[in-house]
Amino acid sequence: MNFSKGFIMLPLESEGFGGSATLYPTLIGDGETAVLIDTGMPGNVERLVEAIERTGMSMKHLQSVILTHQDLDHIGCAPDLVEASGGRIQVLAHAEDVPYIEGRLPLIKTTPKAMEPMLQKLPDSVRQDALRLLENPPKVKVDRTVEDGERLPMYGGVRIIHTPGHSAGHISLYLEQSKTLVAADALMIVRGKLHGPVPHTSLDIEQAFGSLKKLLELDIERIICFHGGMLEENCKEQLAELCRG
Fold first, then answer.
1. pTM, 2 dp
2. Per-residue pLDDT averaged across 66-89, rounded?
């Protein structure tokens, strides 16, 4: 694999709560150093490191991790990655979600109470493991906060776009060199079609749809979604359609 476009998606089969799903952390880099966007569910760090190594990179090349928001499937492996690096890897996130990522406040959407309907459907053995995870979710120190409109001077330019709604501190990232939007959970792809936010995973569904209008201002050639992978056809047209409602 190479970083000809400045990024490589890492399809990651993540397990948790008795099931599995393919998630799409994204590695941005130049073949000599790299930055990881999101990390997958807790307990999957070995798979994540293996996915990084399949790109020709390794932990020693990884400079930092950008967490797009506080949800468990995004922050899950971050503490293990930082520990494996001896604390060398830096963690970046938006200030609104930092208290949750650091564990000073409970994760909003994955408390035992919020997840009770799901927990009741699990077999007893799986339920107990899931409950322990929800009661003691991963936490990691955020070394630096990022702001809306900030441009990170790396790999041709990485622009931070604050896209609240899914969470208060949710961010998307625009890779200027390749005109690629890393949308995180602001959007999803289902069977090759772009979909917008859904109420049951959004803290504020109206705000989440409002955030999409900011993305229309970008010159986008492809969109990477944490759930669904990459879309390269009619990106702007599909995004505009979602914004029109």
1. 0.96
2. 96
Q: Which of 99, 63, 101, 108 is nearest to 81 (CA)?
A: 63
Residue 191: count of CB within 10 angstroms of its CB: 6
Residues forming beta bridges with residue 29, ordered by sequence position: 34
22-48: average pLDDT: 95
First to last CA, the chain: 38
Give the number of other Cβ atoms within 10 Å of residue 114's Cβ: 14
DSSP secondary-structure letter at 224? E
How far is 222 from 88, CA to CA, in rounded Å? 32
Q: Calculate the alpha carbon distances from 225 to 11, 106, 138 in Å.
A: 11, 25, 23
> What is the C-alpha to C-alpha distance for residues 37 and 142, in angstroms, rounded to an integer?
14
- Which residues does 173 contact at the CB level (< 8 Å), separation at least 6? 37, 66, 68, 158, 159, 160, 161, 181, 182, 184
Which residues have C-beta within 8 Å of that of residue 187, sequence separation ≥ 6?
194, 195, 196, 197, 212, 223, 225, 239, 242
Residue type, 12: L
pLDDT digits (tens, 9 = 90+) for 108-139: 998 888 889 888 888 888 898 889 999 999 99
